[in-house]
Design a protein that fits this description.
By secondary structure, the chain is an all-alpha fold. The protein contains 6 helices and no strands. It has helices at residues 2-28, 32-37, 40-82, 90-131, 133-138, 142-190. Helix 4 (90-131) runs antiparallel to helix 6 (142-190).
């Protein structure tokens, strides 16, 4: 298991580096019109938040998947050995799991898209504010920019909270499914 973690981390680092290099190459070779229509905040977002996601969350997700797969495989084998009658419920469990997963993925994908869409304007405002901080101070526009920042932060945090809540919803349903499986296997062992 430890060797597979090390291999996963090594592969993820290689993949993240190649994705970063490819994105950078494409941005550097983009025509001038691309920079005219693409907000600077979106580019900053791609090179900061998206790369951070690749570097931080992808390895954790991959190791979580390996761990979960190992636990589930072991549980199915132990259930099959101790209570073969428990295997009768497996097709139903697989159908419920597939339905929950497909339902969750549709929702989570759209919520993540909203999160990314609301973070672009936030990064754009950061960049604009940093570039024009002397003018903002000279014209005493700090309250206006602070209000804009808070509005964009609210929009971004709302989208992120909804995405996090959808993940918790999915986890609660999977926990309930797991409880049902444990209950069914224990009934098969007792009977």
């Amino acid at each position: 298991l430890g060797v597979s973690y090390a291999l996963c981390f090594t592969q993820v680092i290689k993949t993240a580096s190649s994705i970063h290099d490819e994105v950078l190459r494409r941005v550097l070779r983009a025509p001038k019109s691309f920079f005219d229509v693409t907000p600077l905040g979106l580019l900053v977002n791609v090179f900061s938040k998206d790369m951070d996601t690749l570097d931080e969350l992808l390895p954790l997700s991959l190791t979580g998947f390996i761990k979960c797969f190992t636990i589930v495989s072991s549980a199915v084998v132990v259930s099959a050995v101790t209570a073969p009658a428990a295997l009768v419920i497996m097709p139903g469990v697989i159908i419920i799991f597939r339905w929950l997963t497909s339902y969750f993925q549709l929702t989570a994908k759209e919520l993540k898209r909203l999160d990314k869409a609301s973070s672009g304007p936030l990064f754009s405002l950061y960049t604009e504010t940093l570039l024009g901080v002397t003018s903002i101070r000279a014209f005493d526009l700090q309250p206006r920019f602070e209000e804009k920042l808070l509005e964009r932060l609210d929009a971004n945090h709302t989208a992120h909270f909804l995405w996090t809540a959808s993940n918790r919803w999915f986890a609660a349903r999977l926990d309930a499914l797991t409880c049902g499986i444990v209950f069914s296997v224990s009934l098969c062992i007792l009977l």
